[in-house]
Amino acid sequence: MRPAKAKPIVPHRHLRLGRALNTPTGPDPIDVAVGTRIRVQRRHLKISQDELAQALGLTFQQVQKYERGANRVSASMLVRIAARLHTTVGSLVGEDVVAEQDVAMLTALSTPGAIDLLRAYSQATPKGRKTILTVAKTLVEPDETAGAA
């Protein structure tokens, strides 16, 4: 008599290849962090999603999904991406990350325009940096005069 087959611990619908395991609020935070690191490195090298996709034999939509964490990057694809982006798999998965707060920093850097703003800030004169910072703070701080009116 054969023993009964053990049921998988994870429901079968979550085992599809290339897909991220979604939490109740969205993609798995680890997949988002890996995708963000890919995006940051790609943007640092000034490579478009389309250029990276062509080098990897993918569509730009697939690269976009990897970067958002909507699709999980396989180990073999992670190795190929790391090679194309001149980095290590360890760097893309955060093994060389020192602190947990790096996830928040990477999430902030994945905001559209954040890397462009950082690049402009780093190229500005000291006076220009002060102006950029003043403008940015003014845009995000609540208007103190609004309550007085």
Structure description:
The protein has 149 residues and is mainly α. Helices cover 55% and strands 3% of the residues. The protein contains 8 helices and 2 strands. Helix 1 packs across helix 6. The longest helix has 16 residues.
Range of helix content: 55-70%
Radius of gyration: 20 Å
Annotation field: number of helices = 8
Strand order of the largest sheet: 1-2
Structural class: mainly alpha
Low-confidence stretches: 7-20
Distance between the termini: 83 Å
Q: Given the C-alpha coordinates, what overall shape results? A: globular
The overall average pLDDT, rounded, is 80
Helix-strand pattern, N to C? EEHHHHHHHH
Strand tally is 2
User: What share of residues are in beta strands?
Assistant: under 5%
Major beta-sheet overview: 2 strands, antiparallel
Brief summary of the model shown:
By secondary structure, this protein is mainly α. Helix content is 55%, strand content 3%.
Structural topology:
Layout: E1 22-23, E2 26-27, H1 29-44, H2 49-56, H3 60-68, H4 75-84, H5 89-93, H6 101-109, H7 114-123, H8 126-140
Antiparallel strand pairs: 1-2
